[in-house]
Amino acid sequence: MFESLKPVGMDPILGLMAAFRADTRDNKIDLGVGVYQDDRGRTPVMASVKQAESRLMELEITKSYQGIAGDPEFNQRMLELLFGADHSILNSGRIKSIQAPGGSGALRVGAEVIQRARPDAEIWVGVPTWPNHVPLMSSAGLKIKEYPYYDLSSHEINFSGMMDALRQVPAGDIVLLHGCCHNPTGADLSRDQWDQIADLALERGFIPYIDTAYQGLGDGLDEDAYSLRMMAERLPELVVASSCSKNFGLYRERTGSITFIAESAEQVEVVASQAMAVARQTYSMPPAHGALLVSLILGDQELRAAWQTELDEVRHRIQSMRGLLAEGIQNNAAGQDFSHIVRQKGMFSFLGLKPEQLDALREDYGIYIVSSSRVNLAGINSSNIGYLCDSILAVLDK
Ligand code: LMR
Predict the structure, then answer these.
(1) Can you give the residue range of the structural domain that contains 308?
(2) I want to staple 244 with a disulfide (CB 3.0 to 4.6 A). Which of 167, 207, 255, 298 is the partner?
(3) Active-site entry in 124, 224, 246, 345
């Protein structure tokens, strides 16, 4: 039977990660996959996570199955982290969250539930978006529509184009949005723009689906949650996929959650039962380890404070690398402007280099950047910044 299958190309981000690992050059630089690296180019386990792990070693008395929804304490703590412990939605009875295998698992469960609720619904995704959004959503059976998001020439959000497109969205369709630290562009909507999107969602009757994978890496934990907190207050329905990969550094532990807000408490119970059916029919139950660590950290004042300090350091280091990169390449032979890099948020920005320039950076200098020209600023450090800027200046001079 397998002879009928055709090979599928590697995902552009994970393919680049494999190519970087296979490169034997000492001076290679990984600006590809969205993984945090410290100033020594390492991705260490956060100290707060290590502490939680040693506590877990003592506390954990069983490896028996957890439920389909994962750890109830994790689900509650995540709701508080996402929406704020005092948010009125948490006591409304209209919200339910289940643990999921990472942000991708969460996105997929959310997409499957949407497909069950509205088999004909279309999901509107920004151009550009994280490359895996489209296959994740379409393989759940959702039809994809696009809205413009980013203008490559001005390096700004094309907000008027986006709003024009969203004015065409029929009632009952879904609009996928990035909660903060837009991946791949780093260009985030302002609070006023978020408010306008919420107004339009109410007017048109579309349902926002917010992917929030970088809470705490933009402006801060609370600041980065503005979109979902405001929408939870104003809209009757909302879906939020969240990930602990980046802000807890739990990448390989596949730790995330999917949250649904429905019009009533009765409805949200039905939605949660559907989400659990999706989980049972795909992976059955989510992995436990990462979620238990997150529960321990968020439930303990001391650990939580230590984690927040580490997260602040991550954010500040990325911001300072933004400044160094922009400054280092601003004066270039091509006259290309890179000042947008310092205005943007989170791990990524688009450099705006041509494909042949990206090829030259990879082949001649061992510098790995995704073909969209998205750079992971967290791959830059005080040892490689000089070499990186010189190499970019050299390709811009050709
Ligand atoms: C990224 O965008 O690089 C990360 O979210 C990793 C991934 O799975 O693509």
Answers:
(1) 12-45+303-396
(2) 255
(3) 246
* 130 counts as catalytic: yes
pLDDT band at 12 (very low <50, low <70, confident <90, very high): confident
Relative to the CA of 32, which ligand 1 atom is closest?
3
What would the 3-class secondary structure string for the chain be? CHHHCCCCCCCHHHHHHHHHHHCCCCCCEECCCCCCCCCCCCCCCCHHHHHHHHHHHHHCCCCCCCECCECHHHHHHHHHHHHCCCCHHHHCCCEEEEEEEHHHHHHHHHHHHHHHHCCCCEEEEEECCCCCHHHHHHCCCCEEEEEECEECCCCEECHHHHHHHHCCCCCCCEEEEECCCCCCCCCCCCHHHHHHHHHHHHHHCCEEEEEECCCCCCCCCCHHHHHHHHHHHHCCCEEEEEECCCCCCCHHHCEEEEEEECCCHHHHHHHHHHHHHHHHHHCCCCCCHHHHHHHHHHCCHHHHHHHHHHHHHHHHHHHHHHHHHHHHHHCCCCCCCCCHHHHCCCCEEECCCCHHHHHHHHHHHCEECCCCCEEEHHHCCCCCHHHHHHHHHHHHCC
Considering the domain architecture, whether residues 265 and 319 belong to the same structural domain is answered as no
Is this prediction's pTM over 0.85? yes
Verify that 241 and 350 share a domain, yes or no. Answer: no
Catalytic residue among 30, 173, 188, 211: 211
Q: Which of 10, 11, 13, 30 to mutate to test the pocket of ligand 1 (most atoms within 8 A of CB)?
A: 13
Given the CA of residue 33, which atom of ligand 1 is nearest to it? 3
Express each pLDDT in 238-262 by its tens digit.
999 999 999 999 999 999 999 999 9
Q: Which atom of ligand 1 is nearest to the CA of 376?
A: 3
Q: Pick the last residue of a domain from 235, 267, 299.
A: 299
Same domain? 86 vs 162 = yes
Q: How far is the CA of 354 from the centre of ligand 1 (A)?
A: 21
The answer to whether the CB of 34 is under 6 A from ligand 1 is yes
What separation in Å is there between the alpha carbon of 259 and the centre of ligand 1? 21
What's the CATH code of the domain at 341? 3.90.1150.10
Total domains, the chain: 2
Q: What are the pLDDT digits (tens) for 300-341? A: 999 999 999 999 999 999 999 999 999 999 999 999 999 999
Nearest CA to ligand 1 atom 6: 34
- Domain shared by 108 and 175, yes or no: yes
